[in-house]
Each structure stands twice: as structure tokens, then as C-alpha cells.
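Good morning C.,

I know you're traveling, so I'll keep this short. The sequence:
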Amino acid sequence: MRRRFDWLVGAPLALVRVRKVMTMTPHDATRLRQQSLDIFIDELIADEEFRESFFRNPRRTLRLAADWGLPLSETEIRSLIAAEPLVWDRVAEEIVSRLEEAA
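The C-alpha cells, ready to paste straight into the viewer:
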């Protein structure tokens, strides 16, 4: 079952993240960036509409993610943009296939 990405969900997440950032150590900041990358990739894999939006305009989608409180480094951004779109589609298909087999 595909879920529709709700563009407004990011606003509350951004507020929580802002509070965390204000009291963060350097180690916490690294962990937060890794979590942000994990969340972004999870959305790319799980949400077909989000993935298509990313394919159409990756910079805009990444900018919106930052607005939602998902800070990504420039290296992470370049890496995400450089990945072939087919990679994300194949990973999504593989996961869906394995979930269907397990059910």
C-alpha cells in the first residue's frame, strides 16, 4: 500500500528539530545529520509520489526537506542527486517484493 506524502507533516518535525539543535553537541549534530539522511532515504523508498517529486526537481525537494528539519550536508545532497533514479525505484521494488513474500 502506497502512502501519499503529506507536505505539511514536516512543519511540526522542524519545530522539534530546532529545539534539539539549540542544545546539541558536535556528536549530536553528526547523529542528527545521519538520522536526517536515513529519514530522507526512507521517504524516497517508501513514497512513490515523493520519489517522483525528487526525480523532477531534486534541489527543490532537498530544500523542502531542510525546511522540514532534515538537515543534509552538501556532500549528502550531491550524493543523493548523483544517484541514478533507477536505484531508488529498484530498491523500492525489492522491498515491496520481500514484504509481499513475507506476508
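Safe travels,
E.
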